User: What shape does this take?
Amino acid sequence: MEDSQQEFLYDLLETPSPSGYETQAQRRWIDYVETFADEVRTDEYGNAVGVLNGEGPAIAIGGHTDEIGYIVRKIDDEGYIHLGRIGGSDKTVSRGQHVKIHNGDNSIHGVIGQTAIHLRDKDDETYDSIAEQQVDIGAADEEEAKELVEVGDPVTIATTVNKLQSTRIAARGLDNRVGTWVAAETLRRAAERDVDATVYAVSTVQEEVGLKGAQMIGEELAPDAAVAVDVTHATDYPSAPGDKASDVALGEGPVVGRGSANHPKVVDTVRTAADETEIDIQLSAAGIRTGTDADAFFTQAGGIPSLNLGIPNRYMHTPVEVIDTEDLDAAVEVLVEAVASTDSDTSFSVDL
Assistant: This one.
């Protein structure tokens, strides 16, 4: 990964983007994409599409820009901030964390308090729900807190990107700014290669609360094929439950989904591209649903042949998600090759 592409990735990861509050991250994505896209489109809720016009089939490569987080639910008499959930926030990892409350252009620092171990009941190791947890911003009372914070302000864990050993990084929100990064980079490299296809790089909003952005945009785009790039569970760490996920490891390549929304022709196109470029990929099974924007895309516009391409991710929906950036580069390479392999005669219809 070159320095400029790493800078773009880190910029995305360090920009807060809880579901429903994605504007800042989308602006950064658009600023990057519009330097090589033929055009950039947006809609009323902030979905963004970079377009590379071609004569071949239209192929959408998308990721969702939103992340899980919290929302200010109420401010009590003593100035403590009570929380609600945005998306699938995990109550077991929130206590004892530094957070930022985002009020317009201002970020208010706070902490989600945890009672000291000395004072807790040693026989009670249960976890409070998010609704029972409060943020301490140091305010003396409700009046002071309300001068800084409003009900409805989004809240994120105050972590940043940390480079681990080799090509691995840790951050919150890898789910799924890495998908929007892959979409943007695929568009950039497809433009450099001057592919025949029309390529849509898509950055959707509000995936974490029900695939909402993809539901808004699929009908309008109506591409010939769509690839939803999202993180998938890596299970190559000691405490990973082997009975609840596929056998996926960091650094072994992107993960091609099979089953349910994953269209066999799109699957074959990506697998063939990987074989021809000698890029390692992994496989995962999705017998009922993928849990990604692919589930929204494939039922629109009369049926859009779709695929979920996964980026292996450890510790999903925690502040310390971990990926291998080599998997990101491999995802871009295989997608560019897949797009380049299509022409005006390409059909993604199943053979009956």
In short: The radius of gyration is 21 Å. Residues 193 and 260 are 32 Å apart (CA to CA).
